[in-house]
Amino acid sequence: MKIIIAIIVFSIMILFHELGHFLLAKANGIRVNEFCLGLGPTVFGVQKGETKYSLRLFPIGGACMMEGEDGDSEDNRAFGKKSVWARISVVIAGPMFNFLMAFVFSFILLCNIGFDLPVLSGVSEGYPAEEAGLAAGDTIVKLGNTRIHFYRDIRTYAQFHPGERVPVVYERDGKRYETQLTPQYDEEYGAYLYGFLGSTERTKGGFLQNLQYSFYEVKYWISATLGSLKALVTGQVGVNEMGGPVAIVGMIGEGYEQSVSYGFFAMFLQMLYITIFLSANLGVMNLLPLPALDGGRLLFLLLEVIRGKRIDPDKEGMVHFVGMMLLFALMIFVLFNDVRRIL
After folding, report:
1. Fewest 10 Å CB contacts: which of 129, 153, 222, 318?
2. Opening angle at CA 324, ends 319 and 325, nearest 5
3. Per-residue b or e along 209-246, where b marks 16 or more CB atoms closer than 10 Å to that residue's CB
4. Which is nearest to 218 in space by CA: 278, 143, 267?
5. Between the CA atoms of 64, 66, 72 and 76, what dihedral angle is there, to the nearest 10 degrees?
6. pLDDT band at 291, cuts 50/70/90?
7. What is the C-alpha separation between 47 and 54, in angstroms, rounded?
8. For all residues of the chain together, what is the average pLDDT?
9. Which of 18, 67, 69, 316 is catalytic?
10. Is-contact 210 107, C-beta < 8 A?
11. pTM for this model (two decimals)
């Protein structure tokens, strides 16, 4: 059951991503030869007009295959025949649709369970927050230059700024105050802590407030993903700690097992939460300026805008091919890490 749910989650994210490319391609008059879910041999396919819609054997991945996308084509409706801004809109639509899906799912989730406001229920004795005079009822507004919307924003900020002295803006009885805190390392938790204690209560807002906090929810996961990438690049997190498909399936399975005993609806909300995180993560990763990813294609298109002429499609295609091979090598490495952790 865990594998089936993981496949469903992956399929929804990828389908929505490719749907973004598909809809913008159609809107810009680009010929779409095939729209498929999965990789490998075709299990089922139907031709509708100029486009073949198919399901492939391995249910991970998918594609919106456009005429002339990775090479030259004489077709007037080929990808390369369209204006550079039309092509940019098609390429960027995939990640944007991932963010859109995360937003919609966030709205559904928050309408049902509410959100965790950064209001303190108290402070821990002997920690910097107590020494600075913070108390129950205070609302954390900013840490450094980061606006705080959820209580979990505090934990994430401390994770990515370990041991740093930080300006803290908080609100008490409608007035704002500022202090400086240096987090204290806690051996038991293995993390730097300010000494804040958050409330377990969640706030349920109205329609407009839920829309607002759905935006903050997506922003939270985008920021968390970018923070993780920065930690990886700077060596704060080791390459061996990277997780891949096996780790993600494990996370989905764990979420399923923890929630299924509370009923179908609780399981559904837990899967929504995981899908929000994964969809926002997929959107960010696809925008990285690396060959074969949407971000790499965007980089070539922006270079075309600057140069005033298109880079040779065959040379660009070769760069993306090499990038794809490197990505496959990285996936194998990450998969090996996942298996090694399990064993």
Report:
1. 318
2. 100
3. ebeebbebbbbbbbbbbebbeebeeeeebeeeeeebeb
4. 278
5. -170
6. confident
7. 9
8. 88
9. 18
10. yes
11. 0.88
CB neighbourhood size of 185 (10 A): 11
**pLDDT bucket at 235, cuts 50 / 70 / 90:** confident
339, amino acid identity: V
Sign of the torsion angle spanned by Cα atoms 38, 48, 286, 100 = negative
Token pair, residue 55, equals: 């399901």
Tokens at residue 88, please? 């940019």
18 carries an active-site annotation? yes
Question: Which residue from 226, 267, 211 is spatially nearest to 9, judged by alpha carbons?
Answer: 267
Q: How far apart are CA 205 and CA 111, in angstroms?
A: 7
Pair 67, 77: CB distance under 8 Å: yes
Starting at the edge strand that comes first in sequence, how are the strands of the sheet with 166-172 ordered? 146-147, 139-143, 166-172, 175-181
Range 245-254 average pLDDT: 68
Longest alpha-carbon distance in the chain = 72
User: Rounded to whole angstroms, how far apart are CA atoms 149 and 106?
Assistant: 14
How far apart are alpha carbons 257 and 264 in whole angstroms? 11
pLDDT at 331 over 90: no
The residue to which tokens 């140069």 are assigned:
307
Phi-psi region of 114 (alpha: psi -120 to 50; beta: other; left: phi over 0): left
Q: Is the pLDDT of residue 28 over 80?
A: yes
What is the distance between the alpha carbons of residues 165 and 163, in angstroms, rounded to a whole number? 7
CATH 2.30.42.10 assigned to domain 116-201? The reply is: yes
Residue 283: HSE in the Cβ half-sphere, 13 Å Cα cutoff: 27
Most confident of 54-58, 65-69, 146-150: 146-150
Residue 169 predicted with pLDDT over 60: yes
Structure tokens at 265: 């609806």
Which residues on adjacent β-strands are paired with residue 176?
171
> What string of DSSP letters covers 63-94?
EEEETTSSS----TTSGGGS-HHHHHHHHHHH
